[in-house]
Specification:
With 357 residues, the protein is an alpha/beta fold. It folds into 2 domains: 7-233, Alanine racemase (TIM Barrel), CATH 3.20.20.10; 242-356, Elongation Factor Tu (Ef-tu), domain 3 (Beta Barrel). Helices cover 28% and strands 26% of the residues. The longest helix is centred in the middle third of the chain and has 18 residues, at 169-186. It is elongated, with a radius of gyration of 24 Å.
Amino acid sequence: MAYLTLNKSHLRHNYEYLDRIFKKHDIDWAIVTKLLCGNEDFLKEVVNLGIKEVCDSRIFNLAKIKKVAPDMQTVYIKPPAMGEVEDVIRYADVSFNSESATIKLLSEEAQRQGKVHRVTIMIELGDLREGIMGENLIEFYEKIFELPNIEIVAIGSNLNCLHGVMPSEDKLIQLSLYKQLVEAKFNKKIQWITGGTSVVLPLLFRQQIPSGINHFRIGETLYFGVDLFEEKPIKAMKPDVLRLFTQIIEITKKPKVPIGQLAANPSGDVFEVNEEDYGKESYRAILDIGTLDISVEYLIPDDEDINIVNASSDMLVVDLGDKSPNYKVGDEISFQLKYMGALSLLNSDYIEKRVIE
């Protein structure tokens, strides 16, 4: 049976490493938990780290966080749909916003629930996902800063999430200047510039973060210990907070080239024959996981001698080479994961999730 593990000691190691860095630079930070898909056992491990603020993009997950840790500050990190405003006020202490009409509804709902809802205004810096255009910031702020039961506590931005636009010192300076403009125009203090995500973290290592950027939201680097600028592990961090374990359900020596007329498989792929493989055989293992659970491009075998062949909906085929393998039916084969692969597994009800030491 395939299962996914969260290594709590590796998670704490990565958390403490990041926390030291942020404290050194006098930067507040929050953990992004959307990867965990509301899994309560995994969320408890995040809460136990001692973090004071968590971010998520699903109301369902924020409700789970409030159940696990009622006093935790929760942040909804996408502009709310109008139909979910009631739940946003109920489960999110802060929300990211880019539409004044939505903030007006949040204001009205916050009054009904007797709460003060805190808001981060998202600003477009070039990746063309959520965010108002900078030239509209003053007009936007004028519409919302006097709304009852709404407190604007931050401005922020996202980069690299849609079109792959990378962060830069210049873009972060631009974000800082927008904050200064609003504060000067309205004589209002904005507490945070939440300009940092995992992809921005390497700029902090290089001393390229403007002093005004005082808040980060970290998910991927916490769980995978990766430098997203260079796409390589950070040496001081653990890359395997999350790991997949699969079980071998068949091992057989088979031809390397399919036998018969080739057409598209159910995924629409057509196998391309390597002519050098004609007449050759290798040991192939079938594992109890498939594309329903994860795309093969997101799997990294721990055993470097294993090559992934392909997967069908419920089975993954790997090549063990032409020599008699050291594996047998029932043995486990483990994989490290890329972010989107882990997200798929955590969202699957078919994969057991375990916390390990």
